[in-house]
Amino acid sequence: xxxxEGEVRNIQRxxxxxxxxxxxxxxxxxxxAHLRKHRSATRRSVGLAAWAATAALALLAALLALxxxxxxxxxxxxxxxxxxIDQLPPQQPLTxxxxxxxxxxxxxxxxxxxxxxxxxxxxxxxxxxxxxLAVLSEYGKSKETTxx
Length: 148
Hints:
Radius of gyration: 45 Å
Order of helices and strands: HHHHH
Low-confidence stretches: 80-85
Structural class: mainly alpha
Largest sheet: none
Oligomer: single chain
């Protein structure tokens, strides 16, 4: 039992040392936490300034666009008489009004769209030259006739 008594004495001595330490313990004030508030604050202010600048530029662009609007041209008169598409003036620029007038006056939607399409230029081939489009269309026609 002497080993057991020695262990009990050691534990009591350790307890007395710990109690003495606790009696003399004085808490120390913690240092201020070094948070990254400064960086996030500058990032936030830079982000806010960027958004403000973007909004100001958008507002300025909208104001400039509204100031420099072209003057409205003459309004086309719509009639119920169908007009040939060829009778429309070729020098007139394509606007929403002229496209609407063309849709109203043309006999069908397809005719109006065909009239709006840009004309393809006619290119003459040199003598002995063949158009690839012509050769392919002839090839397609010959394939259709040989189908069983």
